[in-house]
């Protein structure tokens, strides 16, 4: 499989560059979806478009067992600073998370499996989802939309990969259990009375309350959560006041909570509310609004093990990266909740320079593309045999 994938390396790179040059934000991936649908139709696949707004689903074979493979197609609102010949031609929009590579690799899987004479019986479902990076006005991301519209129905397993620009190209990281965190956003308004800067004693100063609230909030992880459970809470924005001699009447704070298990997730939220009572003790008040984000991605143990053994056999034991969990969030989690599934990490380091995800200098090594396509295709075949 790896040899076959290496033989289409140039095609994979060409697809990836085409997508990279024409990045589109979440739920706006119309050109990308058309390119994907046309390419798949050209290979003779049955294709459905407009799933989850701008998603595409294609089928190889039918019935059960059925294995899904997911790629995401959206880019980010970042202006690319790289001057590569394939740099973004859409100012202010950039594939800075590698989803262009994910989409190209899944097209590669279609090519590999559609030309495979002895493909195992069953259905391969290619799931190209929109908008992994952002939710729509109903707070739903592309992955959730695809699940809701049935793209994951009647599957026996689902797999995906994510490139990692900081890890050596072609190396594979896989772990069972939680690999990405659940994400919740919080929005707090602290209220006081405001007043004249020269007469603080006549009013309630919400910026003074803010100082105590920050301490109380950052005490949650340290003092109120089981030390063996992963959890993070970060404040991302604080806004108050407009001039030197007026004490503002309110302070707005927002931030993110990251956890793995649902018990800790609930506890972080209730402890946040509890901590805010400091505001009332000091004569002010608070309002708290919590907006739930993606759940944690929980890799199925059996699917993860199959990915690990496939990587070991196809790429060699030294191609495996040490297991690693992160507090980032991924909306593949909705798919892995619906169907036993697993996502693995594919190293894609471009050069010696630091090129972090979600930055204007992000780039990936195209040497990783055939490895990723071969891994997805081979794991899919093994899953079909195992479940058949
Ligand atoms: Zn991203
Ligand atoms: Zn991503």
Structural account:
This protein is α+β, with helices and mostly antiparallel strands and 388 residues long. The chain has two domains: 2-180 and 296-387, Zn peptidases (Aminopeptidase, 3-Layer(aba) Sandwich); 182-292, Alpha-Beta Plaits (2-Layer Sandwich). The protein has eleven helices and 15 strands. The chain has helices at 2-7, 9-21, 30-42, 99-114, 142-148, 206-224, 262-276, 278-281, 301-315, 332-338, 368-387, and strands spanning 46-51, 55-60, 66-72, 123-129, 157-164, 172-173, 177-180, 182-191, 195-196, 231-240, 246-247, 250-259, 285-292, 297-299, 341-347. The strands form four sheets. The protein has a seven-stranded mixed β-sheet, with helices on both faces. The protein has a four-stranded antiparallel β-sheet with strand order 10-12-8-13, covered by helices on one side. Helix 6 runs antiparallel to helix 7 (262-276). The radius of gyration is 24 Å and the shape is elongated. One zinc ion (ZN) binds at residues 97, 99, 132, 162. One zinc ion binds at residues 97, 99, 132, 162.
Judged by helices, strands and strand pairing, the structural class is alpha+beta
CATH fold-level assignment of the largest domain: Aminopeptidase
Q: In what range is the share of β-strand residues?
A: 15-25%
What hetero molecules are bound to the protein chains?
A: zinc ion
- Quickly count the helices: 11
- The succession of helices and strands, N to C, reads HHHEEEHEHEEEEEHEEEHHEEHHEH
Q: Identify the strand order in the major beta sheet.
A: 1-2-4-3-5-15-6
Q: Tell me roughly what share of residues is in helical segments.
A: 25-40%
- What's the total count of β strands? 15
Shape: elongated
* CATH class category label of the largest domain: Alpha Beta
> Could you tell me the radius of gyration in angstroms?
24 Å
Number of spatially distinct domains: 2
Taking the alpha carbons of the first and last residues, their distance comes to 20 Å
Major sheet summary line: 7 strands, mixed
CATH superfamily of the largest domain: Zn peptidases
Which spans of ≥5 residues are poorly predicted at pLDDT below 50?
Answer: none
